[in-house]
């Protein structure tokens, strides 16, 4: 197995399950079945001779993330250099789970075959151009830096021990490291970012490498939430100002720590914050916006497929409140990965981290 991203020293390695032998032919059969027969794919692609194929193909364009505002090609152009990163990520995830990465090439060929044989020519040719670029990117060398480290705050010397404590479930040790940093004079938000955020980004790469489980990701974030809440109670909060924000991870997004950090930073600087947390349905967000009439709505977007929901929420807010719409600020891992995405989905602004979020939020509501 090629070792990429080897710069993280995991310290105490946590072995999970012994890798299972993979039945490649079985996997191929199942993927082929998925593409051609599964209800989900059929409803997107249509099956052979299905009357609504053009609409289905359009649905697939939309599913690519951002329809309407920019087209699929625009998105593809903007994400050109990300294709390689994404492929390297999947390759890393597959290889570390003992699934041969060659499988990726096979999947790409099937996709090409599928598009050529099932889609109307006009749509197929667009997708085939993308697939051709993907074939080239498959041969590109790995990026120098792991893609999910973009905008990662610089880790401190204590970030490694903090990460190990999180993965091991040692909440006392993690709490101690966090409090010692505050006692040493570092700010709350600064500590959250350089200790906690950096450690969590590293844990993400360990998950990629199959060296921590999803359970450990949950454990780590639960400990972080507890530490943040505990320390927040001892942190000096600015006098309450005039501004109110509603903050949410929308339906499908379970990554709440970043949103919590931004919410904490706003609250510390005097904002009144309604933190809605994970998996918030758009309708629930709308109810909250209607009831509390915030100056700002903050949305966290962690994975590429959350972009579509974010755009839907932004459109709904604007369509419902018109010129009285609150300012809309977005952020999160996927926003940090892809330049220009915030404007593509119609937000007023984005901010890459909790520290700058306060400045930008203040600017949005006072400008
Ligand atoms: C913990 C974790 C989970 C936990 C989350 C639990 C929880 N309660 O939060 C669980 C187990 C649920 C999870 C699930 C999944 N995850 Co996950 N997860 C992570 C991990 C390790 C840490 C996330 C985190 O807290 N980061 C720390 C915070 C502080 O960083 P942040 O979100 O970027 O926030 C900062 C900025 O972005 C910004 N910001 C964030 N939100 C907002 C909002 C506004 C308004 C503003 C202005 C700014 C802003 O400010 C924040 C503070 O500075 C990341 C790794 C990573 N790089 O983040 C992977 C990661 C995001 N997950 C990943 C994946 C693949 C998944 C799953 C699909 C599979 C899995 N691992 O189970 C599912 C999908 C779940 C879903 N539908 O959402 C991948 C995504 C890769 C990709 N292709 O995009 C990552 C990158 C791991 C990796 N390296 O492969 N995950």
Brief overview, please?
This protein is mainly alpha-helical and 367 residues long.
Describe the structure in your own words.
It contains 17 helices and five strands. A five-stranded parallel sheet has the order 2-1-3-4-5, sandwiched between helices. The protein folds into three domains: 24-138, no CATH class; 149-232, Orthogonal Bundle (Methyltransferase, Methionine Synthase (B12-binding Domains), Chain A, domain 1), CATH 1.10.1240; 244-366, Cobalamin-binding domain (Rossmann fold). 59% of the residues lie in helices and 6% in strands. α12 crosses α17 (354-366). By secondary structure, the chain is mainly α. Residues 1-24 and 30-72 have low confidence and may be disordered. The N and C termini lie far apart (53 Å). The protein binds cobalamin (B12). The site of cobalamin (B12) has 41 residues, from α10, α11, α12, β3 and β4.
């Amino acid at each position: 197995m090629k070792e990429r991203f080897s710069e993280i020293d995991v310290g105490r390695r946590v072995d999970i399950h012994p890798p299972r032998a993979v039945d490649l032919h079985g996997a191929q059969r199942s993927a082929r079945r998925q593409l051609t027969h599964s209800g989900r794919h059929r409803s997107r692609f249509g099956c052979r001779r299905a009357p609504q194929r053009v609409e289905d193909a359009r649905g697939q364009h939309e599913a690519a993330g951002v329809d309407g505002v920019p087209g699929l090609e625009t998105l593809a152009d903007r994400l050109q250099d990300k294709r390689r990163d994404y492929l390297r990520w999947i390759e890393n995830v597959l290889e570390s789970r003992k699934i041969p990465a060659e499988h990726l090439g096979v999947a790409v060929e099937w996709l090409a075959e599928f598009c050529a044989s099932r889609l109307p020519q006009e749509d197929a040719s667009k997708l085939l151009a993308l697939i051709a670029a993907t074939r080239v990117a498959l041969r590109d060398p790995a990026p120098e830096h792991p893609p999910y480290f973009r905008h990662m705050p610089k880790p401190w010397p204590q970030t490694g021990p903090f990460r190990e404590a999180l993965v091991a479930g040692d909440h006392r040790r993690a709490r101690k490291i966090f409090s010692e940093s505050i006692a040493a004079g570092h700010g709350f938000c600064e500590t959250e970012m350089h200790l906690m955020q950096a450690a969590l980004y590293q844990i993400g790469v360990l998950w990629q490498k199959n060296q921590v489980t999803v359970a450990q990701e949950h454990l780590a974030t639960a400990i972080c939430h507890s530490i943040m809440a505990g320390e927040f109670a001892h942190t000096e909060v600015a006098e309450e100002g005039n501004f109110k924000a509603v903050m949410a991870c929308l339906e499908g997004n379970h990554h709440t720590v970043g949103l919590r950090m931004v919410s904490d930073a706003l609250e510390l600087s005097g904002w009144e914050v309604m933190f809605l947390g994970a998996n918030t349905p758009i309708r629930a967000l709308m109810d909250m916006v209607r009831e509390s009439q915030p100056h700002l709505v903050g949305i966290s977007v962690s994975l590429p497929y959350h972009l579509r929901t974010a755009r839907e929420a932004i459109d709904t807010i604007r369509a419902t409140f018109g010129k009285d719409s609150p300012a809309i600020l977005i952020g999160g891992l996927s926003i940090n990965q892809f330049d220009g995405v915030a404007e593509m989905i119609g937000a007023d602004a984005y901010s890459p981290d909790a520290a700058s979020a306060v400045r930008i939020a203040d600017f949005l509501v006072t400008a």
